[in-house]
């Protein structure tokens, strides 16, 4: 069982004694015989070992993992907490300060330190600032001559960055990297000397440090004795604070740790970043399979198999089975964290090794159960998988460590043999990115000044700048083929080092190579359409010559005019920050919301605007300024305005225990906007009497089926506690349960129904909208399956608002006028929407008045990405609003808070929350049948 390991002073003591035991005279380096015997016994078959990792040199100066942590890496039933892992690297830095540099890059969401560990020869480390400057020149070769670039390439070691622990259930990589770091310092063989001389290795020891601790807790408490891979409990309800496995899909870098890594990247420019994951057997090496994003440099897709084939060949030569390449994950979306490098003209690399979700050795059924019809079979021989994984196997953490470490060492060996080629490629990709941007349309993007809601522009520009993309501000009016734009407009020219990324993020995804080839994630992400910000793609080369001032950061400020007014109107032009403002004014009484636009002086006060009493001026002023909202003082016009009192609801957000990720994205949005809510789990829902505590409950998309939302984790096996105790200090965050199994069940469902009947408002999003329909909360409306060959990987499509007077569309009036957008033309009443899911809804003609928004459907309705066989979806309901009992059920077939992406849709959900008492504004009693003449009765 688990025993606290030794870090710090105790580690140093152990180091001395171990060194005394193992130090040997003579020229043959001493090997740690204890290590060799231990790892041999933990490796379940001889062919799962390699000549690269079956031995460990003894060092008199560098502490081995066992000396600091108490055991060799890969010991059965042993995982290390984050502090222990950081402690080990600190011990290495203390032992070899001339060869190890620890860079503190920031703090995680929960306040753990984020570090990068850099290791190389003493000479390279002494010279590391020159390396940093040299790599910066290759990353941005503007003003660097070919001769200078050649000189930099000749004298600069590439940085090879390796990261572990992004996905907390993938527990092996953070363990393996500690042993790798030890070898990099302690092994004096020719290979390691060459690696040290020619490469700087940098490590992210654990990318999701918060989740590491939470998972290790969970492992020791609930998983350590589980040996049946076909009936094993899942992981803890949370890894990091918010988004679970989607921390790998955080395209807009919402997560603090992702932001910090990005900033570090732009400082150091590692030409290669290699992310270590666990899933498929036994070692899958990413090689950039189709669909490839054609906006990335072709050289990238030539480099990827260069590496992966070498590694596959070497490991296969060692007799290790199951090493393969080419399949599994494609190269379409730019949103994976590891794509940071390829997005910036470097090279991403990725491994998937076979993990047990912990350190317990167990018998694994590798081939999918043929009867299930689920899962791809990775145990068959293919041209890219010459020696396939076994169908069944006894598998250990040490096996996993052997495969991963042998692969990484092979990659480092190769890098040390070709450091010049790697830097030449990096330089060439950076240089050509600028050339491509200057040589072919589009040449740039323009973000016109004067948009009604500047915060949408800020949403886009902040992310672009975080990615290192340069934005200029036009000093004068800009005339281009596409139109004339006012001074102050923002311009992204593509003849810049990260022009390729700018193009990928901003363009319409109309270049998907083949709709019959599936993709691993979304097919579309166009930032302007997602944010509902106006962005224009320019095919006019003149855009490159427009004089601009480098934009430091775009920080629109709001304003308030007319001091001493009786009332202030905060104009609703669609800003998400309106919700924040309303919550920040929670203590100000008498706030009203405008229901119909009216004029005051020369100003139009749109529907959705807040009327705030003049006495709150001092509170209001700084808020509207920082939230970039505009407020005007109004006089008697306020008396005639059609308004309703704004009452903040007591808000609950339901989450299953078994799938918290999609709720995590919503929580992130609500927290960013400072919207007040309680997170509700099955325990509270089953307890009942929900109406006593809540006015509105959101049942958001949970990334799973209707049945799973209700019944969640099956009541099989043993109880699964998620509570904080002295022993398990990292559990019980964001909710707590003595047993997370069982779901809300039918009892909970009945309580939700009672909540609605008693006057509560239930809001559902995405697939969770099937719950009230499938379980009969509403009658007559039905779900229906999509067409047979239907496929819609997150395209951006048109939505048609059919009830523009609904409070849900406050703030959208300007947009609803229609007009040209990227990817098409919007008719009056249409908005861009992210297509959320495959379920569609049938609403009978008689109840059509309950539909607030529809999908017009058909090819013309697709703005970015694609839908295969979607023609039959014409006029399907996108938002349905049904009175029920004393309350109401509002169902979004869309997902109005999709990751940190469709910012332009967030307001629809927030409007529903803020105007919960007015959602019946568009209710209509179904028309009675025509009267039958008396004579015919
Ligand atoms: Zn993973």
TrEMBL record:
Q: Report whether Signal shows up as a keyword of the record.
A: yes
| A Pfam family hit | Peptidase_M14
Write the signal peptide boundaries.
1-23
On whether GTP-binding is a keyword of this UniProt record, the answer is: no
The residues covered by the Peptidase M14 domain are: 87-222
Cite the entry's keywords alphabetically: Signal
- Protein name, per record: Peptidase M14 domain-containing protein
Q: Which organism is it from?
A: Novosphingobium decolorationis
Organism classification: Bacteria, Pseudomonadati, Pseudomonadota, Alphaproteobacteria, Sphingomonadales
């Amino acid at each position: 069982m688990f025993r606290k390991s030794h870090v710090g002073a105790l580690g140093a003591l152990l180091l001395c004694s171990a060194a005394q035991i193992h130090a040997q005279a003579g020229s043959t380096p001493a090997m740690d015989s204890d290590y060799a015997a231990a790892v041999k016994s933990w490796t379940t078959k001889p062919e799962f070992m390699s000549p690269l990792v079956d031995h460990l040199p003894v060092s008199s100066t560098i502490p081995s993992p066992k000396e600091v942590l108490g055991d060799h890496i890969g010991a059965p039933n042993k995982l290390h907490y984050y502090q222990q892992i950081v402690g080990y690297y600190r011990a290495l830095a203390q032992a070899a300060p001339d060869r190890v540099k620890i860079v503190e890059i920031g703090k995680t969401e929960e306040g753990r330190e984020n570090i990068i560990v850099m290791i190389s020869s003493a000479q390279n480390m002494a010279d590391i600032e020159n390396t940093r400057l040299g790599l910066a020149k290759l990353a941005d070769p503007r003003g660097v001559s070919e001769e200078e670039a050649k000189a930099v390439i000749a004298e600069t070691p590439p940085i090879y960055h390796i990261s572990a622990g992004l996905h907390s259930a993938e527990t092996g990589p953070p363990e393996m990297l500690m042993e790798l770091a030890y070898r990099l310092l302690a092994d004096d063989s020719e290979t390691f000397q060459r690696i040290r001389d020619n490469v700087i290795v940098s490590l992210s020891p654990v990318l999701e440090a918060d989740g590491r601790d939470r998972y290790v807790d969970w492992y020791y408490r609930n998983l350590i004795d589980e040996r049946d891979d076909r009936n094993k409990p899942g992981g803890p309800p949370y890894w990091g604070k918010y988004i679970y496995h989607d921390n790998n899909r955080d395209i807009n870098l919402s997560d603090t740790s992702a932001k910090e890594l990005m900033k570090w990247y732009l400082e150091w420019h590692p030409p290669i970043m290699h992310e270590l994951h666990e899933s498929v057997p036994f070692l899958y090496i990413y090689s950039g399979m189709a669909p490839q994003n054609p906006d990335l440099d072709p050289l990238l897709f030539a480099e990827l198999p260069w590496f992966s084939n070498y590694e596959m060949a070497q490991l296969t030569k060692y007799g290790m089975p199951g090493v393969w390449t080419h399949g599994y994950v494609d190269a379409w979306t730019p949103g994976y964290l590891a794509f940071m490098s390829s997005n910036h003209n470097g090279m991403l690399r990725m491994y998937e090794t076979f993990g047990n979700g912990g350190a317990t050795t167990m018998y694994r059924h590798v081939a999918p159960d043929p009867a299930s019809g689920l899962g791809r079979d990775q145990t068959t021989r293919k041209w890219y998988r010459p020696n396939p994984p076994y169908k069944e196997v006894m598998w250990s953490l040490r096996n996993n460590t052997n495969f991963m470490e042998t692969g990484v060492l092979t990659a480092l060996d190769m890098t040390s043999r070709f450091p010049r080629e790697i830097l030449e490629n990096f330089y060439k990709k950076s240089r050509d990115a600028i050339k491509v941007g200057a040589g072919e349309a589009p040449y740039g993007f323009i973000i016109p000044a004067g948009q009604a809601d500047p915060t949408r522009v800020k949403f886009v520009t902040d992310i672009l700048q975080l990615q290192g993309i340069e934005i200029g501000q036009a000093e004068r009016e800009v005339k281009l083929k596409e139109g004339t734009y006012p001074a102050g407009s923002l311009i992204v020219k593509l003849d810049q080092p990260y022009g390729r990324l700018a193009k990928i993020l901003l363009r319409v995804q109309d270049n998907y190579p083949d709709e019959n080839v599936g993709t691993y994630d979304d097919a579309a992400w166009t930032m302007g359409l997602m944010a509902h910000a106006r962005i224009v793609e320019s095919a006019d080369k003149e855009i490159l010559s427009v004089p601009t001032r480098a934009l430091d950061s775009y920080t629109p400020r709001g304003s308030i005019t007319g001091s001493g007014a009786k009332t202030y109107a905060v104009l609703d032009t669609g800003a998400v920050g309106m919700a924040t403002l309303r919550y920040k004014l929670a203590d100000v009484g008498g706030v009203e919301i405008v229901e119909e636009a009216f004029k005051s002086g020369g100003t139009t006060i749109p529907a959705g605007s807040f009327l705030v009493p003049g006495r709150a001026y001092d509170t209001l002023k700084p808020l509207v300024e920082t939230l970039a909202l505009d407020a005007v003082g109004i006089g008697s016009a306020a008396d005639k305005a059609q308004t309703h009192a704004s009452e903040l609801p007591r808000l609950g957000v339901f989450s299953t225990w078994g799938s918290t990720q999609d709720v995590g994205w919503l929580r992130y949005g609500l927290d960013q906007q400072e919207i007040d809510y309680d997170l509700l789990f099955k325990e509270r829902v089953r307890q009942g009497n929900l109406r006593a505590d809540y006015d509105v409950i959101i049942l958001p998309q949970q990334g799973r089926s209707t049945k799973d939302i209700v019944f969640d984790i099956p009541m099989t096996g043993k109880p699964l506690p998620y509570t904080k105790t002295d022993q398990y200090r990292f559990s019980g965050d964001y909710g707590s349960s003595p047993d997370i199994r069982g779901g809300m069940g039918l009892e909970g469902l009945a309580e939700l129904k009672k909540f609605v009947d008693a006057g509560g408002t239930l809001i559902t999003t995405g697939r969770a909208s099937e719950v009230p329909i499938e379980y009969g909360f509403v009658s007559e409306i039905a779900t229906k399956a999509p067409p047979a060959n239907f496929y819609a990987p997150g395209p951006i499509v048109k939505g048609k608002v059919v009830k523009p007077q609904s409070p849900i569309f406050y703030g959208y009036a300007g947009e609803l006028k229609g007009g040209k957008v990227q990817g098409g033309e919007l008719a009056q009443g249409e908005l861009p929407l992210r297509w959320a899911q495959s379920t569609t809804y049938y609403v009978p003609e008689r109840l059509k008045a309950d539909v607030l928004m529809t999908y017009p459907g058909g090819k013309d309705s697709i703005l970015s990405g694609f839908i295969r066989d979607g023609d039959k979806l014409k006029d399907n309901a996108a938002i349905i609003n049904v009175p029920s009992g004393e309350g109401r059920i509002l169902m979004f077939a869309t997902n109005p808070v999709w990751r940190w992406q469709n910012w332009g849709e967030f307001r629809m959900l927030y409007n529903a929350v803020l105007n919960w008492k007015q959602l019946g504004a568009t209710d209509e009693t179904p028309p009675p049948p025509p009267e039958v003449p008396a004579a015919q009765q």
